[in-house]
Amino acid sequence: MRVLSGIQPTGRFHWGNYFGAIRQYIDLQTEEAAFYFIANLHALTTVRDPEVLHGYTVDAAIDLLALGLDPDQAVLFVQSDVPAVSELTWLLMTGAPMGLLERCHAYKDKKARGLSADAGLFNYPVLMAADILAYDSEIVPVGADQIQHIEVCRDLAMSFNHSFGEVLCIPKAKVLDASAKVPGTDGEKMSKSYDNTLEVFESPKVQRKKIMRITTDSRPMEEPKDPQGDPLYQLYSLVASDEDREQMEKTYREGGFGYGEVKKALADAAESYFAEPRARREALAAKPERIEEILADGASAASRKANEVLQRVQRACGIAR
Ligand code: TYM
Questions:
Q1: Which of 47, 130, 181, 183 could make an SS bond with 89 (beta carbons 3.0 to 4.6 A apart)?
Q2: CA–centroid distance, residue 143 to ligand 1 (Å)
Q3: d(Cα 148, Cα 63) in Å, to the nearest integer?
Q4: Residue 142 and residue 207: Cα distance in Å, rounded?
Q5: Domains in the chain: how many in total?
Q6: If we measure between CA atoms, which residue out of 260, 143, 172 comes closest to residue 213?
Q7: Are 144 and 175 a contacting pair, CB within 8 Å?
Q8: Ligand 1: which atom is nearest the Cα of residue 124?
C-alpha cells in the first residue's frame, strides 16, 4: 500500500495529533511506500510570523523523528519543498465545485462565527487533495476531523478522472476507532484552537498541572461510574498498560474513588509513556544539520514522485504533450 499523511506546524504536537495520526504513521511506515510531510503551506493560513512558522516546521520534523518516524523507511519532507503540488492544486481547482468547498467545516465554521475568511482557507481542501493525489496515495491515516477533507479529495479525483480518463488514484482515509477523536482537558475535541491540549513534549511538571485541572463531573465519590465516555478515563487508556487500564475500569465501576487519584495515575502514566521519545528528542535537537539532511533527502524523493504524477495529469488535460 502507498501511505501518505500531513500535519500542520501550527504549534507543538498534542495528544490528539499523536494518538489520532502520528502513531498510525509509525505503524504504517513499513508499507510499500510511506510519505509524511509537514504542511507549512496549510499552516500559513493561520501562522503569519515567518520566524514562528519556520521554528514550528523544524520542531515538527524533530518531534516526528523522536516519536519513531524512521527516515530509512518513510519519506519525511516539508510540503512547500515540492512545488508540483501547488501546480496540481490549480489543475484540481479548475473543476472544484464552489458548493462542495462551501460545505467544508473549516471555512463554514469561520463564516458561521461571522469572521471573514480568505481564499486560502476556502481552497484549503483542494491543496489537501493535491497533497494526497500527487503521490498516488492509497491510504491516508488521519483523525476523524479530516475524513470530510478526504471525501472531498475523492470527489475531486473521481470528477477529474471522469473528464480526462483514469489518471488519479482514489485514496481512502484510515482512522483508528480508539483515538479518532481524542478529548482535550475540557472534554471537547483536543485542538490547539480550543486551548485544551496536552502536548506530547511539554515538561512533565507543566503537564501534571494541566491534568490536575481537567474538568470532571461532580458525582459523589461513592457512586460507581461508567468509564466509557469519561474523558479522563479515555486519556488514561491511551497511556496506560492493558493491565492498568483494566484495573482502572474496575475502579470506576466499583466507585468509591476520587478523580484526583485518576488524575495522578494519568500524569504518572503519561510521564513514563513519553519518557523515551523525550530523551530521543533531546539528542536529535542537538544535530540540526542531520535534520536538514533528512528533510532535503525527503524533498528529492517526494519531488521525484510528484513530478511524475504531475506530468501524467498535465498530459491528460492538454497542458503538456
Ligand atoms: P492537523 O495538523 O490539524 O492534524 C494532524 C493530524 O492530527 C489529527 N488530530 C486528531 N486526531 C484525533 N483526535 C484529535 N483531537 C485530533 N486533533 C488532530 C488530525 O485528524 C490529523 O490527522 N489538513 C490536515 C493536514 C494535511 C493533510 C494533508 C492530512 C494537509 N494535507 C494530506 C492528510 C493528507 C490538518 O490540518 O491536520
A1: 130
A2: 6
A3: 26
A4: 25
A5: 2
A6: 260
A7: yes
A8: 23
